[in-house]
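Late entry, evening session. Most of the bench is empty. Finally got around to the prediction I had been postponing all week. Sequence below, unchanged from the version circulated by S.P.
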Amino acid sequence: DEGAVRIAGEDVAELPLPLLRRGIGYVFQEIGLFPHMTVGENLGIGARLAGTPLTPDAIAVMLGRVELDAAMAA
């Protein structure tokens, strides 16, 4: 009921919500996915919004880490 949550010394209650979400690695799942986008576009949306779009190779690496075929990105 009291206190503050701080990230890198900043009180999260003082941050604009979009900046907070981008700064903590917000991951879209289930209903947060965009059905009109490909798997690769959904994977890369956070990075794109942060101004550092992922390359197709980076998306392939991410899919490989969870043992999914890179062809799923298309």
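Two things to note before I forget:
The CA atoms of residues 39 and 73 lie 5 Å apart.
Residues 39-49 form the longest helix (11 residues).
Will write this up properly tomorrow.
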